[in-house]
Amino acid sequence: MRGGFRLSSMRVLYVTRVYPYRPVFGGEIAYSRGVLESLSHACDLTVLATTNGERPVGILEENGVRWRLVPQSRRPQALSLFTGMPNIMWRNATPAYHQALAELLREPFDAVVLDHIASVHALPQLAAWRDAHPDACLLYLSHEHERTTRTEKYASYAGGNPLRTVAMRLDGWKVGRWEDDVVRCADIVSLINPHERSLFEANVGARRYITTLPGYDGTRRPVRRITADTPLRIALLGGRGPIHKRNILRDWLDACAGPMAEAGIEMDVVGNIDPEFRAALTRRHPSIHFSGFVEDLDAHLQGARLGVVPDTVGRGVKVRLTSYIFSRLPMAGIAGAIDGLPLRPGIDFVEAPDLASLTQTCIRLVHDVDRLNRLQENAFAACDGRFDWRTRGADIVEAFHEHRRQRMAMPAAASMAATRLEAPVLGGGLA
């Protein structure tokens, strides 16, 4: 028994980008880490990843997981323009990674989890493995509907440069093509946001989908009262490494810094930010407080009245939202930014159509302590018991078993016909 769940005899290979522990960080990294750690309590798990820069290359046994770590990529990212792969896949598609995967696939795995679009460069190898093992199962762990999200993100990357715009559009097209391929090839597609199913089906049609919501392993504060003594402070969570996240932060601070300073409200940005970018923002908006990474996030958030989600770009479920919810910090966000959770706008959180409106909404809301407390209590009650990482791995393993049962129940002719849809051809020979 591990973590309260019976360890299955099923052998699973987890194919992911990077060893998901610091110094690497971010919501997507946290989601990958949570899923694989939960799986390790439900099956015999092997993980293939690149090193995080601190762990040595090679085989590592740790906390019941067998790791196969390969060197970090040093590929020039611009070369992806001349291949069939989008940049996020190209920079991970190294010969060392593919060689390690080929060696692992000689072992008798019952199932493979292909984690994130960045790992889909491994799809040709996994499609061939799946053809040779018709009773095995291939699951694609989606982090968001990439075609839609990257179209939005890339629009914010170009910065008015026409050549960059063309390059981003080409890269986005390639992302969409590869995403369609992996969804067609996978036996099961796992969604982080159940609302995105229609987006996948619009491109690929009906598949077998499951939902793997993120878990939460931080402090769950049993009770909290926001009072007139709580500082007039609004928190914004999340590291700001990717360009689109920097743009979101910059645009939000441009909109809110002046009005909030005039209203006597402190805006607190929590999470890792590039030092040069932080310095530029500090010069531009000296009233903004940057806390950086904090060890005890729950304790830190008790000094705020409101959490803001100003994300004008991005889909999926934002893992950081669970920190707001379980630390009992009420939320306000751009319409559509708080999605995929069992929350109701106007009851469990507040939303506004644009950044200027969100700024004014936040300024009004922080003074209404009764409503703030209703919002945080409603959100906590709606999510309590629904974000337990321990169940995620067991649910995925049960999906593997169900797939096997269905295969065994199929007539032989139907089973042969269903073994594999067409293999992807993008990027063939270009990795």
- Tally the beta strands: 14
How large, in whole angstroms, is the Cα Rg?
22 Å
Give the integer mean of the pLDDT values. 90
Structural class: alpha/beta
Q: Strand content of the residues, in percent?
A: 15-25%
How would you describe the overall organization of this protein?
The chain is globular and about 65 Å long. The chain has 431 residues and is of the alpha/beta class. The protein has helices spanning 27-40, 87-90, 95-104, 123-132, 146-157, 162-185, 197-204, 243-262, 275-284, 297-301, 321-326, 355-365, 369-383, 389-409, 412-417, and strands at residues 11-18, 44-50, 58-62, 65-70, 111-115, 137-141, 188-191, 209-211, 233-237, 266-270, 289-292, 306-309, 331-334, 350-352. The chain has an eight-stranded mixed beta sheet, with helices on both faces. The protein has a six-stranded parallel beta sheet with strand order 11-10-9-12-13-14. Helix 1 (27-40) packs across helix 14 (389-409), helix 5 packs antiparallel against helix 6 (162-185) and helix 8 (243-262) packs across helix 12. The longest helix is centred in the middle third of the chain and has 24 residues, at 162-185.
